[in-house]
């Protein structure tokens, strides 16, 4: 299963280039907004991707559902090749849309212990602040 559209792939690559350019210029790295959300339809594993490099390695927030979400790299090829029961695989959330930077998700995920819990916390905060 192909998890990326050309537009999503281009946005992920653009974020990677922006980070590399900032590093090369000695500037502060950007705090990108996640471009794609992937999930296990039969479990709690969730990934928020902000970057993609030329080798198909994604960067973002990964949560395997074990209570310790982590910022780091994960393989697009592995996500695409994973076969679950009933012929299912990892899916991309086609309705995912956010304006929040990855740092907001990292902080909330550390507090909540998961990306799913972080999303709930962030929604509750938005409602409390009148933004949701």
* Gap between N and C termini: 33 Å
β-strand number:
5
Neighbour order of strands in the largest sheet: 4-3-2-1-5
Query: Mind telling me the C-alpha Rg?
Result: 15 Å
Structural class: alpha+beta
Number of helices: 4
Which spans have pLDDT < 50 for at least 5 consecutive residues? Answer: none
Q: What fraction of the residues are assigned to beta strands by DSSP?
A: 15-25%
Gross morphology is globular
Order of helices and strands: HEEEEHEHH
State the major sheet: 5 strands, antiparallel
Average pLDDT over all residues: 95
Chart the SSEs and their pairings.
Blueprint: H1 6-25, E1 36-39, E2 46-52, E3 57-63, E4 70-75, H2 76-81, E5 91-92, H3 102-112, H4 115-128
Antiparallel strand pairs: 1-2, 1-5, 2-3, 3-4
Helix pairs in contact: 3-4
